[in-house]
Amino acid sequence: MHVLYQDEFLLFVHKPAGLLVHRSPIDKHETEFALQYARALNGGEHVYPVHRLDRPTSGVLVFAKDPETARALGLAMMAGEVNKTYQAVVRGWPAESGFIDHPLREEPEDRRQKGTEQPVRDARSRYRTLATTEIPVAIERYSSSRYALVELYPETGRKHQLRRHMKHINHPIIGDANHGRGRHNRYFAERFGQGRLMLAATAIEFAHPVTGETLVIEAAPEPSFQQVLSIFP
């Protein structure tokens, strides 16, 4: 994990795939977290996570250096004043661009609550297709297989929103064990020697909660993600 940008109030880091942001009741055996690494990068001083990335998702992650900044940025996120950009590799060829307005039932943090009635929340995402490819490999019923590189822009912040929304439009993200297609996931895992989720947070933009200046922090996907992009011409 490394620093992308920091000032007196904020710390932006690049979280690698496979690292939890903080301790979770469903991963009690884990001993390494982005939170502790961020604290070390902040000279051992405490930091406050203001949002989260799923464990298998890599990319831009923001921490505040004091409770007041964390609270202000959290309110800005709730108000839709923080713009996030992701990249993903998906099965099939989506439209050139699209808007997904599909409510999602909340997923409980604790797996022991799975199956219990949870509220349904509104959820909205936009996307645009950056590149497409067709490889001469029969994975399902066709003699070749199509994939696309897309950019995703969540307008709300529901758990697994982008993964569930791409499944909803029949273009699941490669490497998604819960919402993807097993045959395609296995093909990529075997071809590239690793089965990571092909979802990366590549940029975040918002007004600095203290200075008011517009911050745009970007990060290229990590090497394990870029390796898979070799399928695109």
UniProtKB/TrEMBL annotation:
Residues 102-125 have a biased composition (Basic and acidic residues). Its EC number is 5.4.99.26. The keyword Cytoplasm does not apply. The keyword RNA-binding does not apply. Keywords: Isomerase, tRNA processing. GO terms for molecular function: RNA binding; tRNA pseudouridine(65) synthase activity. InterPro entries: PsdUridine_synth_cat_dom_sf, PsdUridine_synth_RluA-like_CS, PsdUridine_synth_RsuA/RluA, RluA_PseudoU_synthase. It holds the Pfam family PseudoU_synth_2. It catalyses: uridine(65) in tRNA = pseudouridine(65) in tRNA. GO terms for biological process: enzyme-directed rRNA pseudouridine synthesis; tRNA processing. It comes from Marinobacter similis. Residues 100-125 are annotated as: Disordered. Residues 10-168 form the Pseudouridine synthase RsuA/RluA-like domain. This is tRNA pseudouridine synthase C. Responsible for synthesis of pseudouridine from uracil-65 in transfer RNAs. It is an enzyme of class 5 (isomerase).
